[in-house]
Amino acid sequence: MIIICGPFPPPVHGMSKNLLLFKEKIEFLEGKVVPIDISPGTLVRGKKYHLTKIKKVLIALSKIISIKKADRNEKIKFYLPPDGGFGLVYSILLTTIASFKCDKIYLHHRSYAYINKYSVLMAVLNAAAGKKATHIFLSEKMANDFSKKYRVDKYYIVSNLIHVKNWFELNLEPKKYTQDEIVLGFMSNISIEKGIKDAVNTTLMLREKGIDAKLKIGGVCDNIEIENYLNDTIKSNPSDFEFVGFVDKNSKLDFFKELDWFLFPTRYVNEAQPNVLFESVAAGVPFITIERGCIIGDFPDYPYVMREKENFPEFATKAIIDNITPSSYEKNRAELILKVRHQLNDAELKENTMFENILN
Predict the structure, then answer these.
(1) How far apart are CA 185 and CA 256, in angstroms?
(2) What is the DSSP string of 314-356?
């Protein structure tokens, strides 16, 4: 029996989406799953958010306490993606109770917040899991960075790259590139931290330099201020920006197929290994991003991962202009796709090893 505890959708964000994928994979492999949802149901922080979260965590604790083995030989395993901030308090409570009820504890790390900066709360969580803990990291870089601050005895590496395996298997024909019009893309939960203003300013800077650039935006606005900013931007430049709203998994590939470049100027504190960069590559679209979390380790030789303190619109504009001709653009795109494709077999092997351990 595997207790899978965490924030399931809604809302849709990196952790909730990947948690659902993990649950579905365990079920596909015929594992016995007990899902426990602790999602507050919204991205908007406030009184309702925190009260809902507290209520769901209390319910989760009672569910964990009440779980019984079907027989004496059954193993109960607990799987949790820890929170990245003060939500680690909830993770500590859940893991402490699970440590009394469960035979194994799996902590699947999807935040770099407590890796970039030492967290007493993460240290307490790690101690609460104790010798029952097995860690799951997104990359070797993440494992190494984490182990410099906290004790790690057992761990697995499972890259988010595995989630786009089916896209690579389609052997998609990339969009035919023409420098007459450059279609840029931005897709995320739309916020300042995720880089919407940098993406907009990159588009405007390219147009100032005489390049016919257009930005296609997908996602849901984090708050009313961002929604107003986006509406005002589109109203001022209706032909330069297109907002398509939430992009579900069935529409995501079509979103990417229309792009020449994908912009992901994230400065999000929890950013670890964004699926969207792998999705971009699998769809045949080169990206420009900022060094956060696992990104530089996943794309070590890729020239368009910017250091965090640089100016993103200037960096991205230069990258696009340097690759403005079809020959230079297609060379960059082909090299990126080939390098990422070569990582896929290793990612699949490591994922299989992890699931074998969880299910046995």
Answers:
(1) 8
(2) HHHHHHHHHT-SHHHHHHHHHHHHHHHHHTHHHHHHHHHHHHH
C-alpha dihedral sign at 310, 314, 317, 323: negative
Cα end-to-end distance, the chain, whole Å? 10
Place of tokens 């990258």: 319
Separation CA 65–CA 75 (nearest Å)? 15
- Of 269, 132, 242, 103, which Cα lies nearest the Cα of 185? 242
Encode pLDDT of 160-194 as tens digits: 999 999 999 998 888 999 999 999 999 999 999 99
Q: Which residues, listed in sequence order, are joined to residue 107 by a DSSP beta bridge?
A: 80, 135
Burial of 96 (0-12, 13-18, 19+ CB in 10 A): middle
If phi > 0 it is left, if psi is from -120 to 50 it is alpha, else beta; for residue 6 that is: left
Rounded distance, CA 340 to CA 282, Å? 8
Residue tagged 């089916």 (tokens): 166
Task: Quote the radius of gyration of the chain (alpha carbons, Å).
Answer: 21
**Residue among 263, 250, 251, 256 at smallest CA distance from 280:** 256
Say how far apart CA 187 and CA 22 lie, in whole Å: 22
- For the stretch 312-345, pLDDT in tens is 999 999 999 999 999 999 999 999 999 999 999 9
Contact between 330 and 144 (Cβ < 8 Å): no
Helices 224-236 and 196-208: angle between axes, nearest 10 degrees? 10
Under DSSP, the state recorded for 66 is H
Q: What is the pLDDT of residues 291-321, one digit of tens each?
A: 999 999 999 999 999 998 899 999 999 999 9
Contacting residues for 81 by C-beta, under 8 A, at least 6 apart: 6, 15, 18, 19, 107, 108, 109, 110
- 236-247, pLDDT tens digit by residue? 999 999 999 999
Distance CA 340, CA 134 (A): 27
* 333/292 Cα distance (integer angstroms): 22
